[in-house]
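ok posting inputs for the adenosine-5'-diphosphate job
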Amino acid sequence: MLAKVLSATVSGIDGFVVHVEVDLSAGLPTFSTVGLPDAAVREAKDRVAAAVRNSGFDFPVRKVTVNLSPADVRKEGTAFDLPIAVGVLAADEIVPSEKLPRYALVGELALDGRLRPVKGMLPVALACRDAGLAGIIFPLANAAEASVVKGLDLVAVSTLGEAVGFLKSGERPAAVPASSPRRSATVDAPDLSEVKGQLHARRALEIAAAGGHNLLFVGPPGSGKTMLARRLPGILPPLSFEESVQATKIHSVAGVLPRGASLMAVRPFRSPHHTISSVALVGGGTALRPGEVSLAHLGVLFLDELPEFRRDALEALRQPLEDGSAAIARASGAVTFPARFSLAAAMNPCPCGYLGHPDRPCVCTPFQIQKYRAKVSGPLLDRIDLHVEVPALTLSEMAEESPPSESSASVRGRVLAARGIQRSRFGAAGPFTNAGMNPKQLKEHVSLDEASRTLLKEAVRRLGLSARAFDRILKVARTIADLEGRGKVGEDHVAEAVGYRSLDRAPVGSI
Ligand SMILES: Nc1ncnc2c1ncn2[C@@H]1O[C@H](COP(=O)(O)OP(=O)(O)O)[C@@H](O)[C@H]1O
Ligand SMILES: [Mg+2]
Ligand SMILES: [Zn+2]
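and the output
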């Protein structure tokens, strides 16, 4: 007897339908699989057999052959347990096969027959809908995530027995709650009103958000660098529905969506530790998992203690920064994960941290300082538009009962207006923001008057800035003008933009 069951899995962040065929034939009771890697098969066999028996069914004492197709796509994981178990029962005529051509099944089985959640539920459900299936039978623990998908009959079950019950009699053990599309995977974004003083850094944060610029905070420990960076997602435009789906798919595939989360409503903020490997940062590994750059897609990647990161990890960042995606090629197949994020980084001004501090002396030698700075120079620094000095707050600034600072909502209002100007300037063809302008677009959209040109030339000469830095300054100046709602980039805008290139010049000790 042959049974055909549908399932689905993911490649990259997109799902696709998988056909599962189970054949029972006379012969020694063996269990073999075509189209699954060996280790996964051995484990699936034991789990499926135990789950079937512990759910009150007989496991057929026959030769069981399972075929998963397409065969050329790498299929990982354990989500095929449920379709295999149901396939065995259908081939044994315990389960009617009437619904099987229209309903996909996914889920990992525990030995007692209970279902465990799967990774990638959202892309899997989307793929089933797009393939024209009627519905999907899946673990109840994935219900919130699946509920986002409209136009698909969502059958959430807790056990193999319940899945069989539905296939036999249409009985549904639990209603899937209607999706609350804006329900957040992340809660309570911190607010800028909590940050005292630091007007210069707040301004830079606003410019970064408005123009999509990367930024680097330089300041002593405790000056508020981390605090500021954490507030960047909250002043970016809200995620559109499509963006929420895309961000959620990435987190779903990586298996890091919080339990009960449906759609991510808040832009991601990722802050990997500086000991992170390049694979964990940009993705890859045997399971072809998305890395931190992709988890930060449409949000913020925060690299604290930037000079402490491994050289190869920082090198690996260049391609995603350039392309907005992370391409991972391996023998098992190539995938591309989206990775369009804002980079926020932080570092101390020197190894001890207190260079330029009003009360504490720096104990570093000029050589040590130079060596420390050199770690972030070059190609990476070239992609950071805004270098921002964040001095220590004085005690009186900290203690002062001043009125609360401006809120994130209010800053975001200006960011949105500036983004609107950029959208009408660039149109659908992009780039998304000023930071992404190519040389041709830069020429077209930033034309300087004589005074601004002179100012910029003088700054370049005096500070010894590179040609790359020159372009960065123009882009930032464009954003500053957009924040003011001005069509033409003027002298003030250029002057302010020049001020954000401190690390390009930075003779030792002058931060
Ligand atoms: N500008 C500020 N306004 C309010 N609190 C601040 C400010 N700067 C620092 N703090 C306080 O100091 C703590 C450390 O700040 P943090 O952002 O971690 O500093 P850094 O990352 O520069 O070392 C914060 O948790 C906060 O309590
Ligand atoms: Mg910090
Ligand atoms: Zn020092």
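notes: The longest helix spans residues 408-426. The chain has 21 helices and 18 strands.
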